[in-house]
Write a structure and sequence with these properties.
heterotrimer; A alpha/beta; B alpha/beta; C alpha/beta; A: alpha/beta; B: alpha/beta; 6-stranded mixed β-sheet; 4-stranded antiparallel β-sheet; 8 helices
Chain lengths: 419, 254, 478
């Protein structure tokens, strides 16, 4: 067993709070887990050797990171630094119907609500999901009462600083017909390991606009995920932006647990240098008449390595499901790698499912068109590459956020080896 | 303006242009007609420098510059503009962003200051209105989801914005109804200033009712087989290409 | 409509009879001694025995793969007999006239009248019954063209240099669990060599039949197409209806030298088990071809049989400009499980591959496409196009797609598309309105769905495949 994992188990045993029964289950599962290697399907293209013997500080962090505000968005910001919640929840001026609390201090009522969520949405969590179950503290519980439309976007910023290991967990519950917008943003570029998982429960007719901006870079090691459970008629619109870092793995899971639910997932990854980015998405259609539309696009430069695994699973009862997944990749460099696997697993016959995946270069014809208007080859390549991504950015419901992102994405582009 | 001497070119191992000669003076409008497969579109692609179009022999001078030695974008910056028959769609790259980049590149070439965002927007709006495209087309992806007619008008809008010295229109009339045809023709005519030259490639005489050519050339088997004035186009309209004594199987083949 | 489809889907397996042929069969079990005995029975040279033993020792260190989307009880490899031969094979027949008439009747019953095949179509046939090759037709005529077509057991003795050079060169001994097992215990199979520049004058084909109880069949096929040559090879398989599961672990290796072409077609109709999923063949097969410069290997398969299929005919596109193709129809019904697909490994420049896979699932079966497209760092300008379509008949079956795409080259292009659909009520209504019954209608629609693949099969095979599909569907429909 890895030295790091051993030390996790050790620390896990010491934690005692009202969540302990669930934590112990995860601890047990971890005990039975063998350290993943190349032959572990889930980790086939992602090596965990950098984590195996990692030893980082786990105590309180002194760091005081700067948090950039998003122009044009007056978001309700919740800041985590190395797993520790820095925002004083008591000082927040919350709109009616929105409750933000720390799970450890939850009252009995909230405890009941939270246990239906904590470690419940995705039954089979991988190693780091289990580690998070065991070690996450300062667990944030966001609850939106039924029929409440929260206009103000809620932003959760997670900062990792040099030499730290942290485990952060968020639970989000949207009551029936509730509406909200949540931005999850990770950052930090130093040597660190963080896990961050969020579980969302969308009540009937609830609507969630969701953004996960994975802006860890350089030395950061990150394992995260968002697990969504959709009840009848719930609607999810999620956009994920991924930068790569030394090692980054994200699992997005959507469970259609009610009929006529609708999920739209867009994801973009832009990788440079020697970055490694692994995105696994799983869509479970457990109930009939659901719709999923997933578009994932990536650009890989330098020595970077992109891994995408997109699974759609249609259960026997999920008749009349419409599910589509499309993954397109551009590989810019000879030293880069793209490994993609869209998967369909279908047990119902009256469904329409399709997936497609491509790895290609920019189309010669488009390049010619731009050049025939006097634009240089290199500039045309940048425009076309960016356009490839921009198509998904343009679909973000919050265009203010898109505007804030655009120059950052452009800057990132410049770091990449666009020839 | 443009001198083409004995131009030979091939695509995918097939010779398409076989010794084409053409001379165009500033301010002139030349129509190029001919049966399918005569090499009309190939001429436009060869002049613009499209990859895969291999020049085997001949010389092309644009305002004294040896065109064939230049890259695609350099030819464009020297004032050559090709309005495509089938413009490609580029989702994600907005028309506005595309044209702004392009216009400022051209201005830089001419030693002019780049336009500010506001100045550019003003010009772009005017051009849009001139070809009767709704303003929101500027925000949309290049040709993305445009109808055939909208794509053609978008090409003319680009021509107006880029102010080239030689415009090659490759079947800009194909697939257009009368109204759209007029819009395209008016766009072209508005750019005729006595200095700018035009090569109008078309299969039918129809477009030439709206854009009066100074010369008409018939292209067949990769070279100019007959030249004349506007009346030649009218004769073709009436009699087809048969009177040229071309092997009719050539047309069938194409 | 699903009801109707299912009613009609319970048709019997037509090749399920057992033949009363006297055989000599080894006792069940596998150890070094068994391998020595197989080798001795085959009068093999020492190097061959050594090769087998090394494979056996590799196998002992390996684990049975569990990544495929199939479930079956763990097999007891000591309960299988690794050699069975019809008794009459002691003095091997030289021509069909000398073949045991009972054996000829077996093939007649299977719809493969050997005489007819010899007389008519001009198809040269090698017949493998349980563990041995019983007859190879047309050998003389092929010899005139310089083509070698014989049982591999014979080739080991007669053409040791060719066998030594190429055996295991595409599928190494320790490639995977089943290939290692095959390498240790293979008993027979076909050997083909097409000399430089020769276009093989006729289709070559092998029919495989498992007859004996509790035996495994481990055949090994090796085809070498020398520079600029061409060969089309067909393969058909059946087995009797038995309650136990029988193992078929074959290895097929193809070598296409510069400018050579190999077309390999399979119609696989091993016994699939009964309605309750009892019995049937475990078809765990490794098939792989190596393409040198400008070479082309084309795999076409129609898979309707076997209880469990685990099979990925692949191409290693090593030479520049080489081409790999994979056309597949896999139909599962009852409790059948199939996990099949291909690997296209692009190593050379401008290599191209096409994958067309059609999966049809009915009953309570599970049908998975699993494929890998790999673009190596030197595969400049390489191209792949993949299309995987699944058709579900009924709501108790499963259709799955697992395509792996790995790209290491910015100039390579990979396109993968997959869709899933069902026989729509509209389609059925139209057919019925035109007077067709449900069964005929479904069979027509399914045939249309598979057309792209069928057109790749040699003519006689295409007809056979169409019929087979129809027979297999009867009973799935209703």
């Amino acid at each position: 067993m890895s030295a790091w994992l051993q030390q996790v188990l050790h620390r896990g045993q010491a934690i005692s709070d009202w969540l302990s029964p669930v934590r112990r289950q995860a601890l047990q599962a971890l005990n039975d887990t063998t350290w993943p290697g190349r032959r572990t399907e889930q980790w086939k293209y992602t090596s965990l050797s950098a984590v195996e013997d990692l030893a980082l500080a786990t105590g309180q962090s002194q760091s005081q990171p700067e948090v950039e505000t998003i122009d044009g968005i007056d978001s309700l910001d919740l800041l985590f630094v190395d797993g520790e919640l820095r925002t004083d929840l008591t000082t927040l001026n919350l709109p009616a119907g929105l409750h933000v609390s720390q799970l450890e201090q939850a009252d009995a009522l909230h405890q009941v609500a939270a246990t239906s969520l904590y470690a419940q949405i995705k039954p089979k969590r991988h190693l780091f999901g289990l580690v998070n179950d065991v070690l996450a503290q300062n667990i944030l519980f966001i609850r939106i009462e039924q029929d409440c439309h929260i206009q103000q976007p809620i932003r959760i910023i997670s900062h990792s600083s040099d030499g730290h290991e942290s485990h952060q967990r968020v639970l989000v519950q949207l009551g029936n017909k509730a509406k909200a917008s949540i931005i999850e943003q990770t950052q930090g570029q130093s040597n660190s390991l963080s896990t961050g998982f969020t579980e969302f429960d969308l009540g009937e007719h609830a609507q969630l606009e969701h953004y996960r901006l994975l802006m860890h870079t350089k030395q950061a090691i990150y394992f995260g995920g968002c697990h969504f459970c959709l009840h009848d008629q719930a609607r999810l619109d999620s956009t994920l932006i991924g930068y790569g870092s030394q090692l980054s793995r994200t699992d997005v899971d959507v469970i259609h647990n009610g009929e006529h639910a609708n999920a739209k997932l867009n994801a973009v990854y832009l990788l440079a240098e020697g970055e490694h980015f692994d995105l696994h998405t799983t869509i479970e259609h457990a109930k009939p008449n659901g719709t999923t539309n997933e578009n994932v696009r990536g650009i890989v430069g330098d020595k970077a390595n992109a891994v995408f695994n997109g699974r759609i699973h249609i259960h026997r009862d999920a008749q009349k499901t419409l599910a589509e997944l499309n993954n397109r990749n551009l590989l810019l460099s000879r030293r880069g790698q793209i490994n993609t696997k869209p998967e369909l697993e279908i047990y119902a016959d009256d469904v329409q499912c399709a997936h497609g995946a491509t790895v290609a270069e920019i189309e010669e014809e488009a390049l010619y068109y731009l050049r025939s208007r006097g634009i240089s080859r290199s500039q045309a390549l940048i425009m076309l590459n960016f356009g490839f991504i921009q198509e998904l950015i343009n679909q973000m419901p919050n265009q203010q956020l898109a505007h804030w992102l655009a120059p950052q994405l452009r800057a990132r582009f410049k770091e990449m080896e666009v020839r | 303006m443009l001198t083409i001497k004995n131009l030979h070119a091939r695509v995918e191992q097939k010779n398409i242009l076989n010794g084409l000669d053409l001379t165009i003076q500033p301010g002139e409008v030349h129509a190029i007609m001919g049966p399918n497969g005569a090499g009309k579109s190939t001429l436009g692609y060869v002049l613009s420098g499209r990859e895969g179009y291999e020049v085997l022999d001949g010389e092309v001078l644009l305002q004294g510059e040896n065109l064939l030695e230049l890259d695609i974008e350099e030819r464009a910056r020297h004032g050559l503009f090709l309005a495509f028959q089938y413009p490609v769609e580029i989702p994600g790259v907005s028309n506005m962003e595309f044209m702004k980049e392009s216009v400022n590149t051209m201005r830089q070439q001419r030693g002019e200051e780049p336009l500010s965002a506001a100045e550019f927007l003003k010009k772009a709006k005017a051009a849009c209105q001139q070809v009767k495209l709704p303003l929101d087309f500027l925000k949309r992806g290049v040709n993305e989801g445009f109808s055939g007619g909208e794509k053609k008008r978008n090409e003319i809008m680009q021509m107006i914005l880029l102010e080239p010295s030689l415009c090659i229109l490759d079947e800009s009339d194909s697939g257009l109804d009368v109204d759209a045809l007029q819009v395209v023709a008016n766009g072209v005519n508005s750019q005729r200033d006595g200095k700018r030259s035009f090569v109008v490639i078309t299969h039918y005489q129809r477009l030439l009712d709206y854009i009066e050519p100074d010369f008409v050339h018939i292209l067949a088997n990769g070279k100019v087989v007959k030249s004349g004035d506007a009346s030649l186009a009218k004769q073709i309209e009436k009699e087809g290409y048969a009177f040229l004594g071309l092997d009719s199987s050539e047309e069938a083949k194409a | 409509m699903t009801e109707q489809i299912h009613e009609a889907l319970s048709r019997k397996y037509e090749a399920g009879f057992v033949s009363d042929i006297e055989s000599e069969t080894f006792a069940a079990g596998l150890d070094e001694d068994v391998i020595r005995r197989i080798s001795a029975m085959k009068e093999e040279p020492e190097w061959m025995l050594e090769w087998r033993l090394r494979a056996y020792h590799n196998w002992l260190t390996m684990e049975e793969p569990d990544w495929a989307h199939v479930k079956y009880p763990k097999m007891d490899y000591q309960a299988i007999s690794y050699f069975s031969s019809p008794k009459s094979m002691k003095d091997k027949p030289k021509s069909l006239d000398e073949v045991d008439p009972e054996l000829l009747r077996v093939y007649e019953k299977l719809g493969i009248p050997l005489y007819e095949q010899e007389m008519l179509a001009g198809v040269a046939v090698d017949v493998v019954f349980d563990s041995v090759s019983v007859v190879t037709t047309f050998r003389e005529k092929l010899k005139e063209a310089g083509v070698i077509f014989c049982p591999i057991s014979e080739a080991i003795k007669e053409y040791p240099e060719l066998v030594k050079k190429y055996l295991g060169s595409v599928v190494p001994r320790s490639d995977n669990y089943f290939a290692a097992l095959n390498s240790a215990v293979f008993t027979d199979g076909s050997f083909v060599y097409i000399p430089k520049g020769v276009r093989c004058p006729m289709e070559l084909s092998t029919y495989f039949r498992i007859n004996e109880q509790n035996t495994g069949q481990f055949e090994r096929t090796l085809i070498i197409a020398d520079e600029g040559s061409y060969v089309s090879y067909l393969e058909g398989c059946t087995a009797p209806q038995r309650d136990e599961n029988q193992l078929h672990a074959a290895v097929v290796e193809l070598v296409a030298m510069d400018d050579a072409q190999i077309k390999y077609s399979t119609v696989q109709n091993w016994y699939p088990g009964d309605e309750d999923g009892k019995g049937g063949i475990y078809n765990f097969v490794t098939k792989r071809g190596l393409c040198h410069r400008n070479a082309k290997i084309s795999w076409t398969q129609v898979e309707t049989g076997s209880a469990v299929t685990w099979k990925y005919p692949s191409c290693i596109l090593k030479g520049d400009n080489s081409v790999g193709e994979f056309y597949s129809v896999a139909l599962t019904r009852g409790h059948q499980q199939a996990d099949t697909g291909t690997k296209m490994i692009h190593l050379g420049k401008n290599t191209k591959s096409t994958i067309i896979s059609k999966g049809i699932s009915a009953g309570q079966s599970n049908n998975a496409y699993r494929g890998l497209v790999h673009m190596g760092p030197k595969a400049d300008g390489a191209r792949n196009f993949t299309e995987c379509d699944s058709l579900l008949i009924g709501d108790r079956c499963g259709a799955h797609t697992f395509p792996y795409i790995e790209s290491r080259n910015p100039t390579a292009k990979v396109e993968h598309e997959a869709t899933t659909s069902k026989v729509s009520d509209d389609q059925l209504f139209l057919c019925k309105q035109r007077g067709l019954d449900t069964e005929k209608a479904v069979s027509m629609i399914v045939n249309g769905f598979c057309k792209e693949v069928f057109k790749e099969l040699p003519m006689e095979f295409a007809v056979e495949a169409g019929k087979l599909l129809e027979i297999s569907l009867e009973g799935s429909v209703g």
